[in-house]
Amino acid sequence: MKTFLMETVSRRRWPWMVAAVGGALLLGACGSDQSSLQDDDYGIVEPLEDTAPLGKADNAGVGALPTSVDDSDTQVWEVRNQWEDRNSAEAKKAGIGWPANSGLNWDEKYAKWIQSMEKIDSVGGYYTYDTFTLTTPWGKTLPAPKLECAELAMFLRVTFAAWYHLPFYLTSVDGHGTRVYFGHFGGRTRNGRYQDMPKYKLWYKDYSYMTAADIQRDGWPQDARLRERGLYGGGDDMDFIFEGAKAGAYFDEIYLNKRVGHFVRLLLSYFGSVNLVSSRNTYNLKPEAIRAGDLLLERWQKIGIGHTLVVKQVTPLSEGRLEAQLVSGSMPRRQPKWEDGASSKSYFTTEEMGGEGTNYDGDAYVRLGGGLKRWRVAKKIGGKWTNTWMAGDEASWICDTDYERLKTRPTEFRTLLGEVSPEDLRASLLQRIEDARNHLREYPASCAARTRREKAFADLYDLDADKFGMSKAQTDRTYRILDDYVFAELQYETSKTCCWDSSTSAMYQVIMDYNRQQAEDQCVEATVFKAVGGGYDLFKQFAEQTGRGHLWKDWSEDEPCQARDVSDDSEVEHEWIPWCEASQGGGHGDTCTDDGYESNDNPNQATALSEGTYPDLQICKDNDDYYQVQLATGQSMTVTITFDHSVGDLDMALFRGGDQVDISQGTNDVETVHADEEGTYTLRIYGYSGATGTYSLAITID
Question: Which end of the chain is more exposed for a tag (fewer CB within 10 A), N or C?
Answer without folding.
Answer: C
